Amino acid sequence: MAGLELLSDQGYRIDGRKPDELRRIRCKLGVFTQADGSAYIEQGNTKVLAAIYGPREADQNMRNQICHDKCFLNCEYTQATFSTAERKHRSRGDRKGQDMSTHIKQTFEATIQTSLYPRSQIDIYLQVLQADGSNYCACINAASLALIDAGIAMKDYVCACSASLTKGKPVIDINHVEESSDCAELSVAILPKLGQIVYSELNGRLHANELPDVIDAVVRGCKDLFVVMDRTVREHLEETATTFTHS
Amino acid sequence: MLKSKTLMVKTRSGKILKIVREHYLRDDIDNGLLTDKLDLHPLLQNDLVPHEHFLVLDTNVILHQMDVIEHPCIKNVIILQTVLREVRHRSSPVYKRLSSILENPDKKFFVFTNEHCIETWTARKRKESSNDLNDRLIRIATKYYSDCLSDRNQQAVLLTNDEANCAFAVEEGLIAYTAEKYVKSVVGHPELLDKLAKVNEAIEVDRSISYPEHLKLSQLNSGIKTGRFKQGKLNISRENYLEGKILCPDVKGGEILIQGRLNLNRAVHEDIVAVELASEEEWSAPSDVMLDVSIQPGAEISDSVDKKVVSNAHRVPSGKIVGIIKRSWRPYCGILENYGTPGMTRHLFTPAERRIPRIRIETRQFKTLIGQRIVVAIDCWPKHSKYPQGHFVRSLGEIGDKETENEVLLLEHDVSHAPFSQAVLNCLPSPNWAIPEEELRKREDLRGFPICSVDPPGCTDIDDCLHFIDLNDGSGAVEVGVHIADVSHFIRPSTPIDEEAKCRGTTVYLCDKRIDMVPALLSSNLCSLRDDGDRLAFSCIWKMSLDAKILQTRFCKSVIRSKASLTYAQAQMMIDDPAKTDNVTVGLRGLNKLAKILKSRRILNGALSLASPEVRFHVDSETHDPIDLQTKELRDTNSMVEEFMLLANCSVAEHIQQEFPECAVLRKHPGPPPSNFDVLINAAKTKQLDLNTSTSRELAVSLDNAEKPQPGVNLYISTLLRILATRCMLQAVYFCSGLESDFKHYGLAAPIYTHFTSPIRRYSDIMVHRLLAASIGADVTFSELLDKQEIQKICNNLNFRHRMAQYAQRASVALHTQLFFRGKLVDEKGYIIFVRKNAVQVLIPKYGLEGTVFLDRDCEGNAMTMNNLNYVEQDCKIFVGSIALQVFDEVVVQISHDASNIQHQRINLKLVKPNLPGISSVPSES
Amino acid sequence: MSNSIVIRLPSKKRLNAQVPLSSNSFLITPGSVITEDADYMRGHGTYTNDDEEDHKLYASVAGVVERINKLVCVRALKTRYNGEVGDIVVGRIKEVQQKRWKVETNSRLDSVLHLSSVNLPGGELRRRSAADELTMREYLKEGDLISAEVQQVHTDGMLSLHTRSLKYGKLGQGCCVTVSPSLIKRRKNHVHNLSCGVTIILANNGYIWINSTAVDGTKTTGDGGFVVDTEPVQMDDREAICRVRNCILCLSRSSVMLYDTSVLYAYEASLQYQVKELLLDEIATEIVDQTLSLLERESSGNG
């Protein structure tokens, strides 16, 4: 009986959401003037800033990574000291951050049309201001918006969402409380318009029979997220495009 | 849908944590008023509330008045999320009971998710405690309901036990009562009053006794952290209800003794308590006195448990209880003591469990309840009350009535024996179910094989069959098959029938009754491998050499047709009859031969053969009263079946552990700690027998040596030693292989073991079947099957159920022994198996009966001074005057049924030989 | 001093009056299908799937769809600079290499300025000697700003620049403003001497150079444009430069296309305010509004 009841018999989660509901999403494009592209996203209490620099001349230190037929991605994930309940200094190279950077990089390598930018470099900087579960997903979504803001050619948006399974029901967009219980956590990034999964990661164990349900739920979650993101991008476009076409 | 946030700042272990959680408020939450989850017109009449009304319950009402709430007349209740969460947090048994009410649609209980409803949510005020916040939330929700209901001319009534909360509610214009006041005014259900728990007022105030105050939980926690207090589960001695101990690994001996009423300080058996260790000079020794309440009903045994001369050597860490961390009260079965005045409402209740103190209750039904077995729950234990106080829950029936007594022992051992629910029965196939074609095609067809079953007479749930074929392939190899009923084919995971079986865990065999784990249609028909048709089976087939070496093991799902359902005796006769040469008989002979080889090899490996006195009652077919009893006989065929079952279990265990190293269900038997054997070694020494207990093999060898006849040692002694050895053992337990590393089975001397062969009566076997089926591709896995935590949880329940089933079985034997001796007076030979300070324990092999002969009481049962007793612990010897009684001594006792005390009927043992003046009884005529 | 710092909460950007987009240009986001017609040619910001069956044309960036005959492009609203031959750029020297300079011009790759593409002191027809290679750093060193023209666009997107005109060369005292390249309107002339005594170079790569006309005028031919005047600039000129800079920032924040007229109108509109007030939200909005209405009046007058 110990532990929290993640899903009540009445069908509500601890924070009052139903299993298939996302947290509140707020996002914004173009938050920095210096960066080529930038975005900020809040998924509930998970708050992430993304900044894109490039495509630009590759840094001399990265010379070994330069490709002559495509650009390479450099991704840095950092978490603020004040992002979790306990203040904790996280050095730039800590394992968790490096893993996360690699995962994010892999996700976008599949999506950015890198062959359009030979010999270049694109930097993706992600800063988690507040971590309340599904950090990876919020980072992907923020980076996706920032890349669009930077005008970098991509096949599609990338939308990511996480899910877990409790009492036999898939719950999506899990927060920190749900994340720290011992359920499995599935993070999936998809290309919503093309309907392709570009990344998926499962922490913990999930039975093969239950996986399809969870994936269905998580893909639905991604698509809901996409609607919000697309609306934000369109609003941003309209804002900047109206006077633009004046000429 | 509206959203908002709350901020919470918590501190833990000195560090400041800022925990921010989202809290969404919604406007789409069902309040239950428009659905059929609550009646449109609630009907419970109450003098206090003239209108139709719904009840809103406060947490404390649910925690204390569950028996009232469970009464069928209490309907249309709104349970708030706030309350439900609190209940879940505070008491898991109450939460379980509440959950089962919530599942019952007739009760019309509805859970309102008030904290996420935009209209009933409120933020915590500055410096408001969480209790006050919860109270306020409850009041706000009640207000919301009364507003919603005012259009319909109905009302919401808040019931709370908290006077302050009640007053606040009334101030805010709500209708609120304390539960007591409300229940007293309910129209038409006077019986509710008895069920009312009185938490706030003491029924009995006895200024002569004043227990020390319990410390607050926060004080206890800090005390435990600093090491001043020890935490543990109180285990009251079976022999002496004023003595208990807690396990505590950091003191010498691992246990802390708590003696005396005041030191126990209102703690009840199995409560989690905090104990303060006394200084070393105050330590005392466990009393060897048998303290028996029932012998002197009503009279109080002096609290001064003789503190006299306790030699230093016997002193053990002692302490006193300073506070209760968690109560684990449950409803107790028992009887009312009848020395009270019938006209009074206050009475004492004696629980059947010896370790529970008597309970003060209030009832107006004394006249009907006296002479009945009743169930009572404890409500509280005030400081100035000698006994805890409680309330009447329900009556079970007449004392002495066999049905009632069975009910009592089932309840006391937490055996769920209610008929299977409709949902469970719905999972069953139809009674004339036949094996479908499709299933036949998927399985191996073994219907032509000479398969037979061998079981005790009258067995209807046959779960194992055997076959033996000489392969005649020149290599001398033979094929042996064990076929087990394929229960997992019928019990699919996560169905109600599966849940029920998982909860029951095992079939419980009482002397005259069987409490099935699965409905009878499966246990006695479809899954019972009778010789009347085709059955589905799970087969384990070995290719063996003639010296019983396994050459090859194979598992498959199969269809079989048993050629014969035999009893042990029948099978033995067939084997012994040289005229018989049919397939089955030849097979039995082959099996028997192999079994003997297997057994000798097993024993060589160090498997123990232990003994326990087992008896079987002959029951009158009409009255179901026992008319005779006999001890179980052992034939070759018994051990033949057993050998192959052990072999199958071992093979399966090995296989599933290989296939599912993380989540195999296995059974292990830990070796007992050496100190457990002290009693046995001491007892054996008295007969100049030296036992070596360092390994199971050595123990087996020394027990065998004891069997050789020696001068001055009676022949029964080896059996007695085996019985004693059995009592030194630890319990074998189920566990999940992913969570432990030691798989050894001590008793069987097997490196790995599980239960595979009795899926009809054990749930563990069903789990093993599922794993095995998945491993051979005959079935699919599912998530719970592979979740090791989940498996361990189930295993823990199974272990508990098995233990309880065993206790219930013993209790049932005891009950039947009593019934058997009713009105009889028999002199019988017995052996002393334990010697205590004031008594000896005697085992009477003929009846498998064990009892205590008190040496400090005369033959009428009155206490005597015990100055002529001289107890020598080292030699397990006691001198009564000049006559010595020593362990393993043969004595003659007179067995009688003592019904003088209707409350506690019992078997009385009196010593006949040796004749002790003043103590012994005259030999009976017979 | 205390009231000289203004701190504000972020405010929602004012939505500009909605101007209907023309029929063959509309907004699109990445991954959306632009057309299912296989006849169109795919231009920048679009892609097709390799799949034989799938003839759809997808957008790869968020922006405005533009169709020119059969060519379909999606123009992103904010990107790096995509150079074209003949463009004027302002860039910063990043590295001095053998026979060439690397110039940062806000494009994907650094641009190169060959030693052979500059006018060296001492006349146009002078031969480049080995000595010149050694003294390259004397002409242009890391951090120097130059204006130049795009001479060539390589296949990988790299630009070659030249400064073989008196118009181009090292930039001296002045102010550089960075805006999105897409805000610079393509014109015949990108260097404007404004009436207020300020010269602006609205370079195509989004780097805008502002300096005083008077200083600019002193440039002589003899030194090849590598010597800059270090005389202090007059206070009035400095204020005018700042005013122009702030006006350009105001316009770029509201995504108004930048060209001589728009800058001039904004300058005129700003005259009623102090220079330091110009970047305050309300005033900036006011200036942009006035500029837009002036521009509109002009275009309707022309029409």
TrEMBL record, chain A:
Q: Which domain of life is it from?
A: Eukaryota
> Which InterPro entries does UniProt cross-reference here?
ExoRNase_PH_dom1 (IPR001247), ExoRNase_PH_dom2 (IPR015847), ExoRNase_PH_dom2_sf (IPR036345), PNPase/RNase_PH_dom_sf (IPR027408), Ribosomal_Su5_D2-typ_SF (IPR020568), RNase_PH (IPR050080)
**Boundaries of each Exoribonuclease phosphorolytic domain copy?**
21-152, 156-216
Q: In this record, what's one Pfam family? A: RNase_PH
Q: To which protein family does this belong?
A: Belongs to the RNase PH family.
- In Swiss-Prot or TrEMBL terms, this protein is called Exosome complex exonuclease RRP41
Query: What organism does this protein naturally occur in?
Result: Clavelina lepadiformis (Light-bulb sea squirt)
TrEMBL record, chain B:
Q: Start and end of every RNB domain?
A: 443-778
Output the Pfam families linked to this UniProt entry: OB_Dis3, PIN_4, RNB, Rrp44_CSD1, Rrp44_S1
SUPFAM superfamilies associated with the record? Nucleic acid-binding proteins, PIN domain-like
Among InterPro entries, the record links this protein to: Dis3_CSD2, NA-bd_OB-fold, PIN-like_dom_sf, PIN_dom, RNase_II/R, RNase_II/R_CS, RNR_Ribonuclease, Rrp44_CSD1
Cellular localisation: Nucleus
- Domain PIN: where? 53-167
SMART domains per record = PINc, RNB
Stated family:
Belongs to the RNR ribonuclease family.
The name under which this protein is listed is Exosome complex exonuclease RRP44
Q: What is the lineage of its organism?
A: Eukaryota, Metazoa, Chordata, Tunicata, Ascidiacea
Automatic annotation (TrEMBL), chain C:
What are the top taxonomic ranks of the organism?
Eukaryota, Metazoa, Chordata, Tunicata, Ascidiacea
**Could you identify this protein by its name?**
S1 motif domain-containing protein
Task: Keywords in alphabetical order, please.
Answer: Exosome, RNA-binding
Q: Which residues form the S1 motif domain?
A: 86-164
Q: Where in the cell is it found?
A: Nucleus
Family in the record: Belongs to the RRP4 family.
Q: Which Pfam families match?
A: ECR1_N, KH_6, S1_RRP4
Q: Which domain of life does this protein belong to?
A: Eukaryota
Which segments of the protein form a coiled coil according to its record? none
Q: Which InterPro entries does its entry note?
A: Exosome_cplx_N_dom (IPR025721), Exosome_RNA_bind1/RRP40/RRP4 (IPR026699), KH_dom_type_1 (IPR004088), KH_dom_type_1_sf (IPR036612), NA-bd_OB-fold (IPR012340), S1_domain (IPR003029), S1_RRP4 (IPR048565)
Q: Which organism is it from?
A: Clavelina lepadiformis (Light-bulb sea squirt)
